Amino acid sequence: MIPRERWQQIQSLFQELADMDGAQRTSHLEKRCGGDEDLRLSVQSLLALDVTSEDPLLHAIGAAADSLLDDHRDRLIGTRIGPYRVVSILGYGGMSTVYRGERDDAQYHQTVAIKVLQHAAVHPRLRSRLHSERHILATLDNPSIARLIDSGDIEDGTPYLVMEFVDGDPIDVFCDSRNLFIRERLELFIAVCGAVHFAHRNLIVHRDIKASNIFVTKEGAPKLLDFGIAKLLSPESFAHTVPVTRLHERILTPENAAPEQVLGRPITTATDVYSLGVLLYLLLTGRSPYRLLSYSQLQLERAICVDDPTRPSQMVISKLQGEVDSDLNRISDQRGLSPQRLRTRLSGDLDAIVAMAMRKEPDRRYASVEALADDVRRHLAGQPVRARQGDWRYNTAKFLRRNLLPVVATAALFGGLVLIAGMTLWQNHRISQARDATAQERDRAQQVSAFMVDVFSRADPFRAQGKEDTAKDLLAQGAEKIKANTTLQPEVRAQLLESIGLADRRQGLSEIAIPLLEQAVGIRREARPFDARKLAAAMANLAEAQTDAGRFVTAEKNIQEALSYLQDGNAPTAETADILFQYGHLLLLAKSDSQRATQLFTQALSIYRSVPGDQHLAIATTLSSLAAPAMWSGDFSSAEKYQREGLSLLRSTVGHNYPDYASVLQGLGYILTERGKYAEAEQTLNEALQIERGDFGMDNQRIAAIEANLGTIYQRQGNPERAVALTMDALRLVATRLGAGHYLVGYYLDALAHLYLVNDNLMVAESHARRAMLIYAQALPARHLYVAATRHLIGEVLLRRGEFAAAEIELRTALDLDLSLVGPANWRAARTQASLGWLLIAEGREAAGEPMLVAARKQLLASLGAQHPETKLATSRLAEYYRAHHRDNDAVKILSSD
Amino acid sequence: MARQVPENFTQLLTEWRSGQPQALERLTPLVYDELRRLARSHMRAERGGHTLQATAVVHEAFLRLIQTDVDLQDRVHFFALASRLMRRVLVDHAKSRSRLKRNAGVRDLIIEEFVPESPTGAVDVIALDEALEGLQQLEPRLAQVIELHYFGGMTYDEIASALATSPSTVHRDIRLAKAWLLREIAGAGS
């Protein structure tokens, strides 16, 4: 027995030296031990045994558990099951052992596989179901599916199934032992899909597709085992035993389980699509998707529901714990490539196909196994694959490098857009960032991640994405937990606060987000060593939330400060451009300052174009943002040009189903509407709507913007009922999502008021417009274009009602705002002036009114064209004036001149 | 006949802990059954990965046994007990195997099959158990960490929160303890 003091010496020396490298270690050890040779040897021998690559202790326990499990398996050998003699063990799985059985009687010789279920695993009530459903399974007659021959109970009541015996190897072993190329593996995979598809057409779901259930004969023909068996074993019909149900589900090889299986959700054909994705992953990379981090069972299940797996192309160049280069070489050798070549081979199409098959949400995967197989075929034929066209999540993850600026703020101007990306995405982003980071950072990222997983795994992640209540509750719990946990490192705490704040903001809870983000900024300010970039990013995040909440003054201050931290003399980076971009939007929104916004966007654009890396999305987004100030200052043709440029860039890089693509379409649709190109506008907006509905579900703000825009078109085409219905719907969406006090609610109230105005329902128009004003008074600065627009509207209502004095006040206030915000050479000012001119004429102040109306109409004609309703209105008013003064020739002239 | 997850597992565990040896007799078959039910295919799936999965299987066995409404504090306590239990079950089984093995002539063939294919430096669970006894005398905390991690399948994070320490401390403890155990085992064998 080592004396106590000696042990403590050994212990502290070991821990001190454990992380040093060889030479450093030796010299330190010498120094610390002085002449105490015994101590030195003792510590040295311990350090020599401190190897991380292999764990003999785990092995010892694994072997002991193995041996324990083996013990009862052989008891059936030599006995009879039905007409079959049990010859040997073929294999075993979680719930059963498979024996080789032989039948030798007068008629014929037959070899079968007999699956004997674990006695205890089968609930008595399941047994009857098992016996009834085997008839259905027996009808699955396909050369690629191992047939179910018979079933029954052995004497002690244990059920068994007799199946066709397949002489071959599991598919992964088959591929690896023959060093099949990727192409050959894919062809085999397509054949497997064919068999699964056949079963699906017969309404049978496999539920447990994995390599060990798919054998390949020597001739290279795949055979699927165990079709539908898993379903027979799942006691899902017993609702009162939910936890037990889950536990039984868990028996299914967890690494292959789909999220819905982990969560005890309904199992459909989409579950098999997922499992086929996992299988494809394994065939391509030699590994299971969730193997990079050492997960416990529970963590693995959470990962399946929350994390996105490492991409296949990344997996083949990543070492698992304790692996060396030769392990990677082995995997790539078996595929006839070097690791780097293999990575290249998998990146792109195959990454995307696997990701699409393995999506968390069943309804977002390939619609069928056939569709999955088709995509693999397309890849083999060198055609573009579907997975890459629609895979915005995948691309978004990449794009979130921009430190989670709103992916598109563009549409905020047209109607407000906040991209609600899942927490998942964010987290995954953090972890993948961490892979390249130092061990310490990685450790932190994992702490953050573990914390988030802990918070979010409490609820069903699928619901959390769709339903605000759940997500809001979770976020609140998360914030509470951060507050309560006093042991968090500052860096970890800041990251957690930022992530929760961000999620809050994305849910439209910016008032809740702000204090959290402020705390994070506070921590970053105090952090030593001081990290200017992190502080800048944190401040930009805070500013974004403040902008959402309409606190424009503090938001601007924070953005300016953030920018000041980034002016460190080095060449500007994409992060700087991100903040400039954000600033541009703030200036538009808060100050309607289109000139400075244009400058900032242009500056951001040139940075994006100069920095390395894939900036297509950023460039496209910025181009599209440039359209906004152009439009505000009445330059519709530039605006249209920017949108089209952005659109074509997006089309050629990320494809159609990307949310930004829909936003840009919407922006273009708005411009086309204003330019009177209604047919193209309607088509464009409908395309955007289709993308939004397909990808994001019914309930989001971008849909509101598109609907209101379509409403405008229908109004102008003489369908006021439809216009009102669409705008009301937009209003409802926004009010539900953002709360009744949000400025966008005011914006759609204004739109609605406008519809009532042009339909001559002055009372309703006024009431909506005044409600909009009440909201703006709280949510927007007083000097804002939206305010100007609504005041003009109220002025028009009053004017038409004959309340000239009140109307004049409104219109002059609106004009004042228009002139100071966008200048005189602008359709906004012109529109207001046209109203004011008409008012003056109506009051009998014709000398002032007529020239004003004439000039305004001229400007409207130049800005909006003759066919725009505002121009038409001004024209018809002027014509009426001419007629009243018997200047019929002038009237005819302006009415006929287009 | 078919049996549901026993309701009284936690109860038995507590009895065993409070010094009622007969509880172990009733516990052992439960653990045994649970282990047996679990996917062994994981453990053999790949050479490198198999041992990683072994602890997962052990962990899983307990999760399945534990009553779902046990609260966190009890869970920690429970895992400590369960880790101890797992150690006992595995070691007892290994001992009975090795007694059998020494009895020459008894079903040699089958027994051979169960002798683990030992890579060099392989450790068996009996030697590990004995070395762990020694560590228990020297530094009980280290022995407990090893037990929780290896026999209970608990992660560093879980152990850290159970023992109110940090995961990095747990990690360092495990490194030291493991090196010490390996040295003891090697020393005992030579």
CATH 4th-level superfamily of the domain at 168-385 in chain A: Transferase(Phosphotransferase) domain 1
Q: Which CATH first-tier class of the domain at 168-385 in chain A would you pick?
A: Mainly Alpha
Helix content of chain B: over 70%
Unreliable spans of chain A? 233-252, 390-437, 456-470
Question: Can I get a quick summary?
Answer:
Chain A is mainly α and 898 residues long. Helices cover 66% and strands 6% of the residues of chain A. Chain B has one domain.
Secondary-structure map:
The complex is a heterodimer of chains A (898) and B (190).
Chain A: H1 4-17, H2 22-33, H3 37-48, H4 56-70, E1 80-81, E2 84-92, E3 96-104, E4 109-117, H5 124-138, E5 148-153, E6 159-164, E7 168-170, H6 171-177, H7 182-201, E8 214-217, E9 222-224, H8 229-233, H9 242-251, H10 259-262, H11 269-285, H12 297-306, H13 312-315, H14 325-333, H15 339-346, H16 349-357, H17 369-380, H18 386-389, H19 392-399, H20 410-414, H21 423-435, H22 439-456, H23 461-466, H24 468-484, H25 490-506, H26 510-526, H27 532-548, H28 552-566, H29 574-591, H30 594-610, H31 616-632, H32 636-653, H33 659-674, H34 678-696, H35 701-716, H36 720-738, H37 743-758, H38 762-779, H39 785-801, H40 804-822, H41 827-843, H42 846-864, H43 869-884, H44 888-896
Antiparallel strand pairs in A: 1-2, 2-3, 3-4, 4-6, 5-6, 7-8, 8-9
Helix pairs in contact in A: 1-3, 2-3, 7-11, 7-17, 11-16, 16-17, 19-21, 21-22, 22-24, 22-25, 24-25, 25-26, 25-27, 26-27, 27-28, 27-29, 28-29, 29-30, 29-31, 30-31, 31-32, 31-33, 32-33, 33-34, 33-35, 34-35, 35-36, 36-37, 37-38, 37-39, 38-39, 39-40, 39-41, 40-41, 41-42, 41-43, 42-43, 43-44
Chain B: H1 9-17, H2 22-37, H3 41-45, H4 47-65, H5 72-102, H6 108-114, H7 125-138, H8 140-151, H9 156-162, H10 167-189
Helix pairs in contact in B: 1-2, 1-5, 2-4, 5-8, 7-8, 7-10, 8-10, 9-10
